[in-house]
Amino acid sequence: MKLEITPTAKEKLNEIPEGKIIQLSFDMGSCDIVNNIYEMKVVERREAESDEKIIHSENLEFIVNEDFEDTYEHDLTIDFRNNFFVFKNRNQIFNNRIGLRYV
């Protein structure tokens, strides 16, 4: 998967303490296939479960659902604008108001 982190997003994500990992979990109650991630969770570093995988980008690690890459057509850019993260690719903006929550 091509996962790009913009400099503004990377600056914000680099504030996450050691020993933590970013979890991108789909909201299974959402009807909207591409806007179903509304927050990025910062959790204790752990191994991926059987229905998850770990994606590496820009020295950051993300735990994602196993079908995460297919949902975003194997191309995702994470940006940070107006105090929110923005998920987009070359064709569209998926969600422009994603928060960051420490669990």
Automatic annotation (TrEMBL):
InterPro entries: ATAP_core_dom (IPR000361), HesB-like_dom_sf (IPR035903). Residues 1-100 form the Core domain. Pfam families: Fe-S_biosyn. Gene3D superfamilies: HesB-like domain (2.60.300.12). This is Core domain-containing protein. The lineage of its organism: Bacteria, Bacillati, Bacillota, Bacilli, Bacillales.
